[in-house]
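Request: How about a record?
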Amino acid sequence: MPVERCLLREKITYLQARDREVNVLHQLNYWPRRNEFFQFIDQRRSQIETLVAHHLGLRSRAMCHAASMNDWMSGSFNLVGDDVCPGNGDEKVKCEAGTYAWLQHNCPSVPIPHLYGFGLSTGHCMLSVTWKQQQTDKRLRTNLFRSLSNIILSLSQVRLPKIGSFSIESDGGLTLSNRPLTLMLQDLENECIPVNMPRYQSFPSVDSYINSLLSCHDNRLRYQPNAVKSEGDCVTQMTALALMRTVSHHFLDQRLNYGPFVLCLTDLHASNILVDEDWIVHCLIDLEWAASLPIKFMQTPTWLTDQAVDEIDQESYNSLREEFMDIFDKEERKTPAEHGLQRSPIMQKGWERGTFWYTIALRNPTGLHALFYNRVQPQYSETHASDTNFFFIVCQYWTSRAPKFIKVKLADKAAYDKKLQEEFGEC
């Protein structure tokens, strides 16, 4: 039997680990550290009960019960820790609390729970429970798409002054002063990859934000030990990153470079949406990773076909996208935005021009390569992708001394593979 090791959500063998694009060596540390953290929290359940009882105004701690560790949910709902990047946990909580505060004041029509808690006694369920079984039902999809359209429209009605995330400051004030906190940033930081985006950094323009996102991708290639599989893979990744900068002007309208910026829920997936039996949305239960982003980043949900973003079947997805946008357009006619821009035409143009795929690539480190060569590059040339010289020329404009960089990355990969074999007893 092959040796199996535990990751956070699965067990993995050497053959499976060998082909992963993420740093499995680093992730093997998560399971024992998670167990240590769980035990640390479990030993303090009485303190948690006291704290929760205090915030709920209960007379006694005995009226509040913290579940035993065996009953804790994890995977979609997790304890927050920041062992690798101290302060990330506080940042995440402050930004989510800031999003709640802003929505309660500016978008009261968006259904969100009170911060103190939430239950399922009404019979409502997460969309993810019924999505796969009932997604072919046109009536249910129509109800869902209408609900989501109104939520997205409400969020994007208000013009925000810059790109960033809301945060509750130490004095209790609400400010749009945090970096635009998305899952990508903290995922990279958890992998010990520098993102060069301080917590206090917001962005005045789309250009500055795009450059910063691409720098995150650059650093993943530089610092992740198994970022490349071969010389050819390294060259094509370098080429993709160089060209993502070159072609950005084609996908991002310079007239919108300084706004408007609107609030986007970048983690709005089926497990965060509470619906009734008719698929009418009654509550959004998770507002993490919300950020003020360029209006060109608005798009239909990427999970409509249940496929990874770099594996989406364009024809199947477009059929559902058109259905969604037809409803979105009708609802928008009832909801004019204060910034005066119609969002439906912006989203439609983004699909036709390819901005949809470009912006998804920007936010998906492991998906950028496939998205660029399958969705972006073909718009420019049908022959370059089969021309080896093209790649070897362009990659040299991603960094000086490109041949030396390639050698370093191949050495990193060889060392990584050796350590991975040792971890699984394959030596």
